[in-house]
Automatic annotation (TrEMBL):
Gene3D superfamilies: 3.40.50.920, 3.40.50.970
GO molecular function: oxidoreductase activity
Entry cofactors: thiamine diphosphate
Residues of the Transketolase-like pyrimidine-binding domain: 11-186
Protein's recorded name: 2-oxoisovalerate dehydrogenase subunit beta
Annotated SMART domains: Transket_pyr
UniProt keyword Ribonucleoprotein present: no
Origin organism lineage: Archaea, Methanobacteriati, Methanobacteriota, Stenosarchaea group, Halobacteria
Highest taxon of source: Archaea
Annotated organism of origin: Haloarcula argentinensis
Length: 332
């Protein structure tokens, strides 16, 4: 849907989440929000603020502190025609619900041979950078990308957050919607008032370039674009691709960008080993190996437990380290 010339509000990313939820709940009475403190309290980050007053107890449900129960209940609701949107307070709290997500939500359509589907959107604030304690800062998106039957979405701007969340809620299959909380309130953008969708499975070129392709997503998008802009002063013209949807991944955009540049770097805050950079690199090797001019670099978190406050800024990729990784690919 076109969003040109529509009435807009200047929203932060977390406000865009709330706006997307409100729009779909108003449009479709089958949409139900549930989770810990999402009702009267409006959620730990206030992403559901005001929804309880507007839609009531039956559609904005405060649950016990029991992630497996929250998601398990939501799966049953989805199988019988509702469109539940359970919130996990932090993505690091999702692990008790992992069995429900991968053993049931992801497999329901296949298990029932199409008799049931599971229009479920599991929202979770994810990623680091906010000086939070243990279990609040992990980036484990690859866990969910590995599971067939799940879509995995990570937005990076307020405008696209609303459109991607709307598309996720309307999707007939389960979606893991990971919201980078580092940028929940870090900047604003004009967001159309009316509901609209941003298609799942499509990457976005954030900066055109001809020397090297840089693939990233979520909270790493802004520092990656910043690094690319600074490198342009050194004569390095970097193209920045924001994947937005990690599963299904937009391999066509990855391949076409790499064919143009022949060099690449991947930036993500998850640990290096087992991170999605490896999958992106393997895709490039399989599809466009003969275009490759240099080893592909990875700028990532480290293979250690997520650190507490003193080392958090060192752990997360930032423009200086991203520039080093891009230079390494270009100067080989």
């Amino acid at each position: 849907m076109s969003t040109q010339d529509a009435d807009t509000q200047n929203l932060t990313l977390v406000q865009a989440v709330r706006d997307g939820l409100y729009g779909e709940m108003e449009r479709n009475e089958d949409v139900v929000v549930m989770g810990e403190d999402v009702g009267k309290n409006g959620g730990v980050f206030r992403a559901t603020q005001g929804l309880h007053e507007e839609f009531g107890d039956d559609r904005v449900i405060d649950t016990p502190l029991a992630e497996a129960g929250i998601v398990g209940t939501a799966i049953g609701m989805a199988a019988y025609g509702l469109r539940p949107v359970p919130e996990m307070q932090f993505s690091g709290f999702m692990y008790p619900a992992f069995d429900q997500i991968v053993s049931h939500a992801a497999r329901l359509r296949n298990r029932s041979r199409g008799r049931y589907n599971c229009p479920l959107t599991v929202r979770a604030p994810y990623g680091g950078g906010i000086r939070a304690p243990e279990h609040h800062s992990e980036s484990k998106e690859s866990f969910y990308v590995h599971e067939a039957g799940l879509k995995v979405v990570v937005p990076s701007t307020p405008r696209e957050t609303k459109g991607l969340l709307t598309a996720a809620i309307r999707d007939p299959d389960p979606v893991i919607f990971l919201e980078p909380k580092l940028i929940y309130r870090s900047f604003r953008e004009e967001v159309p008032d009316d509901p609209y969708t941003v298609e799942l499975g499509e990457a976005k070129t954030r900066r055109e370039g001809s020397d090297v392709s840089v693939f990233t997503w979520g909270a790493m998008t802004r520092p990656t674009v910043e690094a690319a802009e600074e490198l342009s002063e050194e004569g390095i013209d970097a193209e920045v691709i924001d994947l937005r949807t990690l599963s299904p991944m937009d391999t066509e955009t990855i391949v076409e960008s790499f064919k143009k540049t022949g060099r690449a770097a991947v930036v993500h805050e998850a640990p290096k080993t087992g991170g999605l950079a490896g999958e992106i690199i393997a895709t490039i090797q399989e599809e466009v190996l003969l275009y490759q001019e240099a080893p592909i670099t990875r700028v990532t978190g480290f293979d250690v437990p997520y650190p507490l406050y003193a080392l958090e800024d060192y752990y997360l990729p930032e423009p200086a380290r991203i520039k080093d990784g891009i230079r390494e690919a270009v100067e080989f």
